[in-house]
Amino acid sequence: MTGAFPIEKIKQLETPFYYYDVALLRQTLTNLSEESKKFGYHIHYAVKANSNPRILSIIHEYGLGADCVSGGEIQAALDAGFPASSIVFAGVGKADWEINLGLDQDIFCFNVESIPELSVIDELAKKKNKIASVALRINPEIDAHTHHHITTGMKENKFGINLSQLDEVLLHLQRCTAVRLIGIHFHIGSQILDMEVFQQLCKRLGDILHFLGDRKIVVENINFGGGLGIDYDHPEQHPVPDFGSYFEVFHRHFHPQPNQQVHFEPGRSVVGQCGSLISKVLYMKEGSSKKFAILDAGFTELIRPALYEASHKIENITSDASQEKYDVVGPICESSDCFGKDVSLNQVNRGDFIAIRSAGAYGEVMAMQYNCRKLPKAYFSDLI
Ligand code: LLP
Asked: Strand 261-264 and strand 338-346: pairing?
């Protein structure tokens, strides 16, 4: 965090809630913009990571485009001021109304994942007398070495067009009169910290461009998707991801043609570190060998630990007492409702405020109402 939590203000608010450090978000966006501009890269923020309207409107101020995966996200991006001409639309299951929304708004590009989808876009575009711009989402068959629930670029994943089907897709494209191929798209997974993986992606891209070149196909846009990870263990040491080194990998290993534009779709790396889930301790409970800190937040507010075994740094922000170990759990009637086991925290008492850090991405957006719970509110450092 670029400043400590405003404890006295936080204590006045009803928990649990999301707290966003706007100064840190701005610092991240400034760094992202500067580093991407060095190479002329185009950035489309992955709205799925956090679609809170205020977050979207701050991101929009920095001139980024938007990467959307549903009609709802397209609408949220438009409402926040993102121009349709900067919107890319991905997803394996685009419904007709969502495609129609994209066509009506003249979005920049549909990232297409299958032949049947290509046919539907072609058919719907014809009905509107429009030409849809499409990019082929190719599954590059690269292992991103991340959690199996968030890896997407391997043969067995449902995403993208397999390399072996590329010829068939290109043949099909020739029959589509209302779509124009403008690019190729990849997204190999999320929370990737091993830069070697991106280097492999560049190499695979080279092979694919060669393959397309042999068939006299030139694509103007290359979209590498998102995936850059953040430091969940030490958010204070790495509040802003190393965008410089990330882009440097692509710059070194992929040399675009003069007429080729390079695009990225970062989500987590933009918003992850600026958000914390703030919760209050309801009860302290002693088990036979453990101490439990029972919070008023559960997986209904932040599902990442339960769903992906994700670990978030947890802090007692209202105590200076010496540290002890606790299992930090929520109130939901499921054993998986646990934020961390044997977590060292400043001695915890009922009423203490607990911050679960690095929760700005895939936190508030994935909240749910299981157990008839209320969706969490959001507060911003510059407005409380
Ligand atoms: N582009 C596409 C096509 C995507 O599917 C994703 C994320 C992104 C971009 C943004 O990726 P990022 O830069 O955020 O890694 N809920 C999971 C993460 C799911 C990511 C899904 N796709 C989590 O909490 O870890």
From this structure: unpaired
Q: Is the CB of 308 under 6 A from ligand 1?
A: yes
366 Cα nearest atom in ligand 1: 16
What is the distance in A from the centroid of ligand 1 to the CA of 207?
25
User: For residue 220, which amino acid is it?
Assistant: E
* pLDDT tens-digit map of 67-88: 999 999 999 999 999 999 999 9
Is the CB of residue 89 below 6 angstroms from any atom belonging to ligand 1?
A: no
Mean pLDDT of 235-255: 98
Atom 9 in ligand 1: residue holding the nearest Cα: 226
Q: Which CATH number fits domain 7-16+273-380: 2.40.50.1020, 2.40.37.10, 1.10.1740.10, 2.160.10.10?
A: 2.40.37.10
> Is the distance from the beta carbon of residue 266 to the nearest atom of ligand 1 less than 6 Å?
yes
Ligand 1 atom closest to Cα of 304? 24
Give the start-to-end residue ranges of the domains of the chain. 7-16+273-380, 22-270
The answer to whether 221 touches 260, Cβ cutoff 8 Å, is yes
Of the candidate ranges 2-6, 209-213, 327-331, 352-356, the one whose mean pLDDT is the lowest: 2-6
- CATH code given to domain 22-270: 3.20.20.10
* Structure token pair of residue 223: 């979209």
Probe residue for ligand 1, chosen from 64, 109, 187 as the CB with the greatest number of ligand atoms within 8 Å: 187
For 279-306, give one letter per residue: b (16+ CB within 10 A) or e: bbbbeeeeeeeebbbbbbbbbbbbbbbb
- Whether residue 135 has its Cβ less than 6 Å from ligand 1: no
Tokens representing residue 163 in the block: 């390399």
Would you say the CB of residue 139 lies under 6 angstroms from ligand 1? Answer: no
- Give the residue-averaged pLDDT of 296-313: 97
Whether the CB of 50 sits within 6 Å of ligand 1: no
Convert the pLDDT of each residue in 107-163 to its tens digit: 999 999 999 999 999 999 999 999 999 999 999 989 877 666 655 656 666 778 998
Q: What is the DSSP string of 78-142?
A: HHTT--GGGEEE--S---HHHHHHHHHTT-SEEEE--HHHHHHHHHHHHHTT--EEEEEEEE---
